[in-house]
Amino acid sequence: MPELPEVEVTRRGIEPHIVGRAVQRVEIRTQQLRWPVPQDLQALLGHRVIERVDRRGKYLLLESDAGWVIVHLGMTGTLRVLPTGAALAMPGKHDHIDWVFDDWVLRFRDPRRFGAVLWHPRTSGDVHQHLLLAKLGVEPFSLAFNGALLYERTRGRSVAVKQVLLAGLIVVGVGNIYASESLFRAGIRPTTPAGRISLARYERLAEEIRATLAESIERGGSTLRDFVGGTGESGYFQLDYFVYDRAGVACRICGTPVRQIVQGQRSTYFCPSCQR
User: Fold this and answer.
1) Are residues 154 and 125 in the same domain?
2) Which run of H or E residues covers position 163?
């Protein structure tokens, strides 16, 4: 599943190709994704200029003067820019939506159809108050995110720290891969009750979350299965994993075999020696 770095890589890839350009038309080939695609998306967005491309957590926000297209990539979704002629001539089976510009097509592809394309009109107010966005935690690169926030919001909580990160209610975008990697870098075992972690250790964890996400963005994200960025490039951060998907392999730091467990139906990877 694309996580925050992959979504940010996508945002940076498509932004220079569509911002300041008018949507000529919208072609919807599949109406039913995770939720129904608005049937009137063409009427809402046709001939309007895309003014900004923002990200909130794992959601992409394509802004026009009429409102915002909200895109979530789901588990297997990609959003890519392609030259208009070739793209329109040969859409694939899983190419569900095209935003056609003058020289480019912005194409949403999603083999499993767990992604989403929704509309939030400007008349409904700030897009960040949309039902899907309003309760999200703070952005990990914002000034509001620090160890003190993690510490304060976890007092008295017995749930495992990794599950707190995945919930996205304190900080957004720290999905399964980057939670495992950040906890390893911070030396914290993922099963540790969130309420038992000290302020000092949370300060270290906040630093490592930011560093891990930033490094992944610079490496183009993680290409697992079929993720590619907005212009079709693969990511390479998976080559730098310390623990994720390395069960039984020697820890890069101490040599102890990396262990795999299941938390909340998701695989967790950690080093039993480096993480206490």
Assistant:
1) no
2) helix 161-167
Q: Are 46 and 81 spatial neighbours (Cβ–Cβ below 8 Å)?
A: no
User: Domain of 73: which CATH number?
Assistant: 3.20.190.10
Candidate list 3, 8, 181, 208, residue with the active-site label: 3
Identify whether 272 is a catalytic site residue.
no
Judge if 50 and 160 occupy the same domain: no
Catalytic, out of 11, 56, 58, 246:
58
Same domain (yes/no): 27, 111: yes
Q: What is the pLDDT of residues 100-147, one digit of tens each?
A: 999 899 999 999 999 999 999 999 999 999 999 999 999 999 999 999
Active site (annotated) includes residue 2: yes
Q: Is residue 219 part of a domain?
A: yes
Sheet holding 59-63, edge to edge: 52-56, 59-63, 67-72, 116-121
For the ranges 73-82, 115-124, 213-222, the maximum mean pLDDT occurs at 115-124
Same domain? 174 vs 102: no
- What predicted TM-score, i.e. pTM, was given to this entire model? 0.90
Residue among 29, 113, 153, 266 flagged as catalytic: 266
Residues contacting 43, CB < 8 A, separation 6+: none
Reading the block at residue 91, the tokens are: 């859409």
Domain that holds residue 209: 147-270
Q: What domain count does the chain have?
A: 2
To the query of whether residue 219 is one of the catalytic residues in this protein, the response is no
